[in-house]
Amino acid sequence: MSKISLGRTCRKFLSMNLKFFFCICCVLQAVYCISGSKVVERIVAKVNDEVIFRTELDEYLRRATAQLQGSSSNEKELERRVLEQLIEERILLQEAKREEIVISEEELKSALQNLKDRFPTKEEFDRELRRQGLTISELNDNLRKQLSILHLIEKNVKRKIQVTNREIREYYAQHKDEIGKGEEEAKEEIRNLIFDKKFNSAFARWMEKLKKRSVIEIKL
Questions:
Q1: Range of 71's domain?
Q2: Which residues pair with 50 in a beta bridge?
Q3: How far apart are the C-alpha atoms of 20 and 139, rounded to whole Å?
Q4: Does any domain span residue 174?
Q5: Helix axes 183-213, 75-98, angle to 10 degrees
Q6: Which distant-in-sequence residues (6+ apart) come within 8 Å of 19 by Cβ?
């Protein structure tokens, strides 16, 4: 099974995959609301001065398992990888706060409308919110956090990546038979392929730097 990490899924994340977004919303809801609960929670990890609770991990595991229906996966390995993703997301949120990334109300409103537009009707959108146990206010809070991560990635990784015409020509020359069409026609497709490869590599290196700067303690 491929590694479940933000580095691998970041391109989909940047396009705001709806199911993934609602999954993240529910996890973040647990992260930021559970402090008001009187139930004693088991801590499974600490990231700097913040903790990740067992209930957060279990919720994410439940959703990850549902999305992986039909695929063979080791339960303990899946748990480890899901926790790794939660840790990465926590680090990114902390870094966004440190860099003072602010999401405007206009951008938040636009992003919320984009989410709503993915549903055929308002009733279906409201039904999904109820199914996920979210209010509009909670959805907005979680959406703001996800947008701050997107801006963080844009600032530190995406905008620094360039694909030159020379790289496109060289790629086309090496894969001409596989591509099966003219260089000009395939230019944007090749540019995107090269960009994706550079992006994933750059994101992984940057994420590793953030991890090394963080104090991470796993208590599984």
A1: 6-161
A2: 47
A3: 13
A4: no
A5: 90
A6: 67
- The answer to whether residue 145 sits within a structural domain is yes
pTM: predicted TM-score of the whole model, two decimal places: 0.77
| Among the listed residues 171, 158, 165, 3, the one whose alpha carbon sits nearest the alpha carbon of residue 85 | 3
- Residue 183 placed within a domain: no
Residue 14 placed within a domain: yes
Tally of structural domains, the chain = 1
State the DSSP code for 102: -
Give the tens place of pLDDT for each residue, 3-26. Answer: 333 343 344 444 434 444 555 555
Determine the average pLDDT of the residues in 33-42.
Answer: 56
58-89: per-residue pLDDT in tens?
A: 988 887 777 676 565 688 888 999 999 999 99
User: Alpha-carbon distance 119 to 200, whole Å?
Assistant: 30
Interatomic CA distance for residues 121 and 180, integer angstroms: 42
Q: Is the pLDDT of residue 147 over 90?
A: yes
- How many whole angstroms separate alpha carbon 56 and alpha carbon 25? 11
Three-class SS of residue 67?
helix
* Sign of the dihedral through C-alpha 169, 174, 176, 178: negative
- CATH code at position 18: 1.10.4030.10
CB 69 within 8 A of CB 1: no
- In the structure encoding, which two tokens stand for residue 4, read together? 């479940």
